[in-house]
User: Fold this.
Amino acid sequence: MSDQDLAASIQRAAVLGAGTMGHGIAQVLAMSGIETCLFDISEEAVADGLAKIAGNLDKGVARGKVSEEDKAGAVARLSGAVDLERAIEGVQVVVEAVPERMELKRDLFGRLGAALGPEVLLATNTSSLSITEIADATAHPERVVGMHFFNPVHIMKLVEVVRTERSSDEAAEKAIALARRMGKDPIDVRDAPGFASSRLGIAIGMEAIRMVEENVASAEDIDKAMVLGYGFPMGPLKLTDLVGLDVRLAIAEYLSGELGERFSPPALLREKVARGELGKKSGKGFYDWEVTRG
Ligand code: NAD
Assistant:
């Protein structure tokens, strides 16, 4: 099947988890002409996710990036549910974006496997967990892939399509075609710790922190070296502040367990996290930030 045929075979989707990533994924699916049901465990979370999508679309209209017509179409294609069976009725694809806990994801994939035919594509948006282990919890693990979106989903172009040893070519190709239909620029990655993005991003981030520890240069100058010398849009230390030092520490600990010493978090990172210097969200990381609480 061609890319277009594969993507066109998807008319209905469910997104599980209406948080930061789930609402963004649902928004982009609906904007791509796909009937999308946003599922969460509470009515409040679903309403909140749908309200955030409406807010994003309103901003898009105000900036002239989204037409009134496209916005109305997307809103009409969106629905919400707190009942899983209802959410996944008649879908060709499910994208899971619940919290990063293996047992939670395995439980959901077990239920999806029992309820959905083998032709339904099951994708997880996990940023670090083993997709092989998630897929093992479901019937027909060959239809499971990772679709790793980036935040904010409606703006960031990258999607890592992650295949396990058991993923069928058809499942991976369908996910790639779907990502393209969503206006994204996907990459094809094998299931390995940190996939293609976090592994390199963390390696550079950890080394930059070691350089601050060793007084090689100031945080500003290390970042400037990468921005001006290597064309990075943002230096690795500023990026660490934006992502959150605690989040990066957790990923580095996970990767050092899986891939070895070279990912060991530097002492300075641990000390800063212990002091509550978590980056932008706490007002201080490698830079000082003004904290804006909404
Ligand atoms: P989040 O905490 O913002 O949202 C998670 C949502 O899932 C919440 O609304 C919660 O109520 C809901 N939920 C909890 N249990 C559920 C269940 N059993 N069924 C359905 N919904 C349930 O989390 P997030 O930041 O959107 O992350 C979701 C996933 O995406 C994680 O696997 C994370 O690693 C991954 N991810 C996050 C980012 C990011 O920048 N935040 C980027 C890429 C991938």
User: Anything to note?
Assistant: Strands lie at 12-16, 35-39, 78-81, 93-96, 121-124, 144-149, 158-163, 185-190. The CA atoms of residues 39 and 54 lie 16 Å apart. The chain has two domains: 3-190, 197-281. The chain has 13 helices and eight strands.
